[in-house]
Specification:
This protein has about 525 residues and is mostly helical. It is about 65% helix and about 5% strand. Strands 1-3-2 form a three-stranded mixed β-sheet. The protein has 17 helices and seven strands.
């Protein structure tokens, strides 16, 4: 039976984390202590040093030979069941899409276990539950976040191939990605060059594109000479953001429109704001697309001559009317997206082995540049060696790590508070979408893991721990991925911020109800 002292112990463990978050929020919003650039530096320190060393500390001090495999199996089965259900929905439903599969999987299965889960569950159920949370952290870092990267890169590759090779994708037999290309997330302009090898097969080379900066400079000069209002231009399907951007669109407070949410339940076609949905001969892309299409350079000079002739023959009023017409076309495209499914054709894709190799290359390049990857793997290896042969870490090394890892928890919450303060809205995606995402986060995840835990055979306190950890607030890493790949970042942002605010009463409610 839960008593008042138990509730107080939980609050005593969690409230200090919220104090750090509120101090950071007030430092930016109320007291103006930190500028956005200074916040960026703090967040960088947290991402590169504090959180990886915090994760290393927990993983390296956890006995891997005493893992509770039934608990791990229940948690893993929850994720597999949800992912399988989402893929079935994607394949057999006209309303399904890969974008929503990724987002819903993130919302329902990936909580903030490291920062919130370990101290909260320790306060509720004792030290053994903290060890269980560390085991969940290991699985998240090694398996589930890697799977997320795989899905994000698959989506990026699919969009790139569909835009560059709409008719010949099935003929591609290999990809070669140049070493300076880190990801297919669309944040940097890429070009894909096809060539016929000596074997007569089609080979593709993916490299960075230099055309974007050239076009942007040319476009900027035209706008300045005509004294026109900066606007987005469409040039051979390339999304050009003039004046305010060089290589990628200027970050927006909210790139998610509620119509995209409703479109999920009305059409399988991706919203123009989230994919490479195009029309008008395949060359005009949505003005506000969240993931800009990859530039093409084949008819660059031809398009430049067209702009030059238009510059001579059209005045400022005509330019304004063209801009207005483009906006009207964008609205028409978005409003008509629900009726596109009848004429939708299944796009061709390269063989599965070719796609798999491409995605594995890109995921590997992302992983080797992520400090959390090294922290998790080195921590796991050390724990295997340390607990197997009872080897202690040298005191100098241990002290050097602990001086930063001890600050990791507070700095992580402080960084989260800075992030909240820099957002124009706590609920950036609309109330209906926020309500839906909170229901997925705090109801669907716990319900599914309750079923999988019972199926595995968990009972008593272990079952309670599994359910409460599934009701933790949204993990930060899925939001980082969503922002990097520009896939529903506003939904994940709201899930992180608003989820942190409501998580404490919700988890305590679960704790009380399960303890009755």
């Amino acid at each position: 039976m839960i008593n008042g002292k138990d509730i107080y112990d939980v609050l005593a463990a969690i409230i200090p984390l919220y104090v750090a978050m509120i101090l950071a929020y007030g430092s930016v919003r109320w007291w103006k202590i930190f500028t956005p650039d200074q916040c960026s530096g703090i967040n960088r320190f947290v991402a590169v040093f504090a959180v990886p060393l915090l994760g290393f500390h927990f993983i390296s001090t956890n006995d891997p030979y005493a893992m509770n495999y039934h608990f791990i199996a229940a948690d893993s089965l929850q994720k597999v069941v949800i992912l399988f259900a989402l893929f079935i929905w994607h394949v057999f439903s006209k309303r399904g899409s890969l974008e929503w599969v990724i987002t819903l999987f993130s919302l329902s299965t990936l909580p903030n276990t490291l920062v919130m889960g370990i101290p909260l569950l320790k306060a509720m159920y004792g030290d053994f539950s903290g060890n269980l949370m560390v085991q969940i952290v290991v699985m998240q870092s090694v398996i589930w976040y890697t799977l997320m990267l795989f899905m994000f890169e698959y989506r990026g590759a699919k969009l790139l191939i569909g835009e560059q090779f709409p008719e010949t994708a099935a003929s591609i037999t290999s990809f070669r990605v140049e070493s300076d290309v880190i990801s297919l997330n669309g944040r940097e302009p890429l070009q894909a060059d096809a060539e016929i090898g000596d074997d007569g097969k089609l080979h593709v080379i993916v490299r960075r594109s230099s055309a974007s900066s050239i076009i942007s400079s040319y476009n900027k000069g035209i706008l300045q000479s005509n004294n026109m209002t900066p606007r987005a231009s469409n040039l051979t399907g390339v999304e050009i953001y003039s004046v305010q951007s060089s290589r990628e669109p200027t970050p927006r407070a909210s790139s998610f429109n509620q119509s995209d949410f409703y479109a999920m339940f009305a059409s399988k076609t991706a919203s123009p704001k989230h994919g490479y949905t195009n029309s008008y001969g395949g060359d005009v892309f949505s003005l506000q697309s969240s993931k800009g299409p990859t530039p093409r350079t084949s008819n660059f000079e031809e398009e430049m001559s067209k702009i030059g002739s238009n510059k001579k023959n059209r005045g400022g009023n005509n330019a304004s009317s063209v801009s207005k017409g483009n906006v009207e076309k964008e609205i028409e495209i978005e409003d008509g997206s629900k009726n596109m499914e009848d004429g939708e054709k299944k796009s061709q894709m390269p063989p599965a082995s070719v796609m798999t190799r491409l995605i594995l290359i890109m995921v590997w390049r992302k992983l080797i540049r992520n400090p959390n990857t090294y922290a998790s793997l080195i921590g796991l290896i050390w724990s295997l060696v340390s607990f197997r042969w009872n080897i202690q870490m040298p005191s100098i090394v241990k002290g050097s790590i602990s001086i930063l890892s001890d600050a990791g928890l507070g700095m992580a919450m402080f960084s989260l508070g800075l992030f909240m303060a820099l957002q124009p809205k706590i609920i950036a995606c609309g109330k209906s979408v926020a309500t839906f995402s909170m229901a997925v986060r705090f109801l669907t995840g716990p319900a599914v893991i309750a079923a999988t835990s019972i199926a595995i055979g968990l009972r008593g306190v272990l079952l309670h721990v599994a359910i409460v950890q599934a009701a933790l607030p949204q993990g930060i890493v899925p939001f980082v991925f969503a922002k990097e790949y520009n896939l529903h970042p506003d939904i994940l942002s709201t899930a992180v911020i608003f989820g942190m605010l409501v998580a404490l009463p919700i988890t305590i409610l679960y704790y009380v109800l399960l303890g009755v």
